[in-house]
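To whoever is on call:

I kicked off a structure prediction for a single chain this morning and the downstream step that reads the tokens threw a length-mismatch warning. I double-checked the sequence; it's 98 residues and nothing unusual in it as far as I can see. Pasting both halves so you can look.
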Amino acid sequence: MRLIDITNSYPHLVAEQLAHTDTQYLKVYSLGSTTVVYSRAKTHDELLFTNDTRNIQDAELEFALAKLCGAALASVTVVRGPKLAEITLHTKQPATES
């Protein structure tokens, strides 16, 4: 499997996400017939997987999660739907000084 950066093919998606959400970083990847949208915000990272023809396979989730976030599939919760899957990784907030 290979993740291919196809962010330049989605300028409207990138502009809308950055303008209207708390997203600070956004990349779109092709994983064969599956599209992976990876976004990063202050409090969380999200991976959204879509495929027009079939449901998302665990091997695709494991591969992208390891490559992009360095996390294991067993350590996250996957929200699944028909032909899509979403993973949210909550990041730790830095301690504020009192």
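Update from on-call: the warning came from a stale cache, not from the record. Cleared it. Sanity check on the structure: The chain has a mean pLDDT of 88.
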